[in-house]
């Protein structure tokens, strides 16, 4: 699992650039919603490849069968 980070760059004119890394899928929007509502109007959003990625859950099932023959 990668580390989740939020990076903010505050420019002299008051603009704030926010960068989210380590969060897979659209849940990054949930993480940043409260912060963005306090900062003001969102002018632009650019999704990264992590936004469009899907989390992969793998499960493995092993089936064994034993037979015994007397010949």
UniProtKB/TrEMBL annotation:
Pfam families according to UniProt: DUF2997
Domain of life: Bacteria
InterPro entries on file: DUF2997 (IPR021375)
Protein name stated in the entry: DUF2997 domain-containing protein
Organism: Crinalium epipsammum PCC 9333
């Amino acid at each position: 699992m990668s580390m989740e980070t939020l990076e903010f760059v505050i420019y002299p004119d008051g603009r704030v650039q926010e960068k989210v890394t380590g969060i897979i899928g659209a849940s990054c929007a949930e993480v940043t919603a409260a912060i963005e509502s306090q900062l003001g109007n969102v002018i632009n959003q650019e999704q990264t490849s992590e936004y469009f990625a899907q989390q992969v859950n793998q499960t493995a099932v092993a089936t064994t069968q034993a037979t015994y023959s007397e010949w």
